[in-house]
Amino acid sequence: MSLLVEKTASGREYKVKDMTQADFGRLEIELAEVEMPGLMACRTEYGAAQPFKGARITGSLHMTIQTAVLIETLTALGAEVRWCSCNIFSTQDHAAAVIARDSAAVFAWKGETLQEYWWCTERSLDWGPGGGPDLIVDDGGDATMLIHEGVKAEAEYAKSGALPDPSTTDNPEFQIVLTIIRDGLKSNPTKYTKMKDRMVGVSEETTTGVKRLYQMQISGSLLFPAINVNDSVTKSKVKFTFSFHG
């Protein structure tokens, strides 16, 4: 797939597999809303107050129909949203299409390559010259990691002029991360630092990401507050319900 950002008629950015699936996605969302009464109650109770008005939220979380209900709850409460998937295979393309058409900037499709995956992650964090998001909904810690690695690289570049060198690691995925950061440094040498300065915090949904956060907290390298959603009672009950119903 060509890695070029597309735009809706209203100017909202997106990159999805097939926008013709959006109508099917809307039908699925209507069904899912019935099974997600908590989020729907949030819209009813807090929609008029717009508690997220002006907030920028980036999500790196499975782009499914259920996630679509979450995204539209955030936008109903006033937030601006940019989204990517945390998994190259989990995206439901009809869910990505309907959100891109109707609600938020989405960069996700089923079967992404690793190169495409990290491009999508970078796009979801890029809110333009005003900095990045205020909040991140992360799953696996990749969006959080990209900001941290970017800040580290920018500090070294400002100090010595050295650019990240992808050949210093034999991890092919981390080579892509370093390449993305390196390629943007000369044109925008404070991009990730501005993101860090704007960030209010991140919620982390899974064990891998939580482990990374605790390691950064212990080492003193964690750049902004984080909430461990992975170990919450709410997640345990939700996951049990999904398991129980197959």
UniProtKB/TrEMBL annotation:
Hydrolase in keyword set: yes
An example Gene Ontology biological process: S-adenosylmethionine cycle
InterPro entries recorded: Adenosylhomocyst_ase-like_sf, Adenosylhomocysteinase-like
Hydrolase recorded as keyword: yes
Organism in which the protein naturally occurs: Lithospermum erythrorhizon (Purple gromwell)
Domain of life of the organism encoding this protein: Eukaryota
Keywords, alphabetical: Hydrolase
PANTHER family in the cross-refs: ADENOSYLHOMOCYSTEINASE, ADENOSYLHOMOCYSTEINASE 1
GO cellular component, one term: cytosol
GO MF term (any one): adenosylhomocysteinase activity
Protein name, as recorded: Hydrolase
Pfam families linked: AdoHcyase
